[in-house]
């Protein structure tokens, strides 16, 4: 079976890595949009058109499920994709892990892009899933873009800025952008000891496996990893090699759990559906 993952940039790497770890026999199709990236500041119609075009290309290449590992794209256009492709091809979106963080009884901060932080989508998510707990919203200008470019210095500066604006009483940080797990070790280094990070990548991967038309049964094989860049066949960009999961996917081998959870202080995954 083939699963397609769509994002403008490297935000799809963590979910793709979890799929590779959990079901290495799957073929993965990674659809990125360097010509249109970043999607965050773009209009709704632009994001919808790019996402729909990528999904149509994925189906033409025999994808049996479509994953949107991007919070911006999920809130902007997931309903359009589902109307177009379901029930024949399941479409799985991404939701920041506010619910499991709140269920753990923690004091929460949500790190997200400027657009997501200001969105009614995130406000509704917090109202619905935070169980009445106060939630600090921390915008992280420039962090996703720095990660996309593999710019370690710029990412470090953005992380320092966000950590400095995160109240000390918050003992859990929800990563509300799918790019941020790629720099989870650096984020943890800037936060007080014992802070737990929550992200949705593993939960989205597990939900994808549940939604596949046939169960995945390990058979000792390792599937392929194909890449499309703004509609054209290509390779993972050089910036992906700045991250362990990017290097593992580029090598088209299996992905270890240690590659995906490099820090023991990250919170264990709790299922979150979208």
TrEMBL record:
One of its GO terms (biological process) is peptidoglycan biosynthetic process. It holds the Pfam family Asp_Glu_race. InterPro entries: Asp/Glu/hydantoin_racemase (IPR015942), Asp/Glu_race (IPR001920), Asp/Glu_racemase_AS_1 (IPR018187), Asp/Glu_racemase_AS_2 (IPR033134). The keyword Isomerase applies. Keywords: Isomerase. GO terms for molecular function: glutamate racemase activity. Coiled coil: none annotated. This is Glutamate racemase. It comes from Actinomadura soli.
């Amino acid at each position: 079976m083939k699963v397609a993952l769509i994002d403008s940039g490297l935000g799809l790497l963590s979910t793709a890595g979890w799929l590779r770890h959990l079901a290495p026999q799957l073929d993965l199709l990674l659809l990125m949009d360097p010509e249109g990236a970043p999607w965050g500041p773009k209009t709704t119609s632009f994001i919808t058109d790019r996402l729909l075009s990528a999904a149509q290309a994925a189906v033409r290449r025999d994808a049996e499920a479509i994953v949107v590992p991007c919070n911006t794209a999920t809130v902007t256009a997931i309903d359009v994709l589902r109307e177009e492709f379901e029930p024949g091809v399941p479409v799985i979106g991404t939701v920041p892990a506010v619910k499991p963080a709140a269920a753990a009884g923690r004091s929460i901060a949500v790190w997200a892009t400027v657009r997501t932080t200001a969105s009614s989508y995130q406000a509704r998510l917090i109202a619905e899933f935070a169980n009445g707990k106060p939630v600090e919203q921390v915008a992280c200008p420039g962090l996703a873009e720095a990660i996309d470019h593999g710019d370690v210095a710029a990412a470090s500066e953005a992380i320092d800025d966000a950590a400095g604006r995160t109240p000390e009483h918050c003992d859990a940080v929800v990563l509300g952008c799918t790019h941020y797990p790629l720099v989870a070790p650096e984020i943890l280094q800037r936060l007080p000891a014992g802070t737990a990070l929550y992200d949705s990548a593993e939960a989205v991967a597990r939900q994808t496996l549940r939604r596949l038309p046939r169960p995945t049964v390990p058979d000792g094989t390792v599937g392929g990893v194909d890449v499309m860049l703004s509609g054209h066949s290509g390779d993972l960009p050089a910036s992906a090699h700045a991250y362990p999961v990017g290097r593992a996917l580029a090598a088209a081998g299996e992905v270890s759990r240690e590659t995906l959870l490099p820090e023991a202080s990250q919170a264990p995954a709790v299922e979150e559906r979208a």
